Amino acid sequence: MKNIIVMSVLFFLIHGCKPKNENTINVAANSIKINQQDTINKVNGFDFPVGKPDAKGYYNAQKFTKNNHLGEDWNGAKGGNTDLGDTIYTIANGYVTFAKDLGEGWGNVIRIKHYLNDDTQIESLYAHCDSIYVTKGDYVTKGYRIGTIGNNNGQYLAHLHLELRGQVGLPIGGGYSNNTHGYLNPTEYIKNNRK
């Protein structure tokens, strides 16, 4: 009888604690496991990644498509390295799919996948970060502190390189190209999708 009770307890511990309906969702070529009873949190509007709210104290120093730029470069209004270490905020609710140092011209990079609805996703990319406060798999809400503005170990004056991609999971790329397929104008998109 004692053996039956021990075996029953072991069976419950092994089989009773597993999630019953586990699914895998693909997040920018990276898998994150969620339970079926969980729901994917959708976007509830967009905001700028610096100077909450409305990019106060910052300016867009290199706009989308200027000099074939695939993103935007956000600088502190006082210039130079005055914004080094300033907070970077996520532009919308989403799931972190990448957060690490790529070296070379990129430095620390964060990529976040945003679910607009069940069929449409976009991705934001934050580069040249001094510090990273998130890890792959984290869920972050709009305005959450994800890192700080950097200068890629002195390679540039401090600024945030922000890209918004309508095609999720594109290769990191070079930040410049005359082919903008898969990329969105960040400021235009944020202004048109605020709440």
Nearest-integer average pLDDT = 85
Count of alpha and pi helical runs:
3
What's the end-to-end separation, in Å? 63 Å
Q: Tell me about the largest β-sheet.
A: 10 strands, antiparallel
- Total DSSP E strands: 12
Low-confidence stretches: 1-37
Give me the secondary-structure category: mainly beta
Percent of residues in β-strands: 25-35%
CA gyration radius, whole angstroms: 20 Å
From the spread of the alpha carbons, the general shape counts as globular
* Percent range of helical residues: 10-25%
Please write the string of helix (H) and strand (E) elements: HEEHEEEEEEEEEEH
Q: Could you explain the architecture of this structure?
A:
It is a single chain. The chain has 195 residues and is mostly beta strands. Helices cover 13% and strands 35% of the residues. The chain has three helices and twelve strands. A hairpin with a 6-residue loop joins strand 6 (94-101) and strand 7. The longest helix is centred in the first third of the chain and has 14 residues, at 2-15. The protein is globular and about 40 Å long. Residues 1-37 have low confidence and may be disordered.
